[in-house]
Design brief:
The protein has 109 residues and is mainly alpha-helical. It has one domain (2-108). It contains 4 helices and no strands. Helix 1 packs antiparallel against helix 2 (29-54) and helix 2 (29-54) runs antiparallel to helix 3.
């Protein structure tokens, strides 16, 4: 059981890392919100699941934490996106010429 718990904790840490990487790599606020929210929610739940294998007595508390994360994460990201939209922040768009240049730069790095 400990090994399975460790695997879920490592999986959760990987998703948290990918969420942080998405925050750095995505071009605008809307994409960053999506990358961060989805990956961090899944990573947090995987870590909680792994901790549940290590400490089964904590399961009720971990379930409450997971429920809190599942309820607040989408609400928070939607609120941030709506505030950005109402403030006039435009989504990232590229013309066809800029898109070709952007994609060629991504292939080089």
């Amino acid at each position: 059981m400990i090994i399975l718990g460790n695997l879920f904790i490592i999986l959760g840490a990987a998703f948290l890392f990918l969420g942080a990487l998405g925050l750095v790599r995505m071009p605008d606020l809307y994409n960053r919100i999506q990358a961060g929210t989805k990956a961090v929610t899944l990573g947090s739940l995987a870590i909680l699941f792994g901790v549940a294998f290590h400490h089964p007595a904590w399961l009720p508390k971990l379930l409450l934490i997971a429920l809190f994360i599942l309820l607040t994460s989408p609400v928070g990201s939607s609120t941030i996106a709506r505030a950005a939209y109402l403030a006039g922040l435009k989504p990232f768009t590229l013309s066809s010429k800029e898109k070709a240049r952007y994609l060629s730069q991504q292939e080089e790095s």
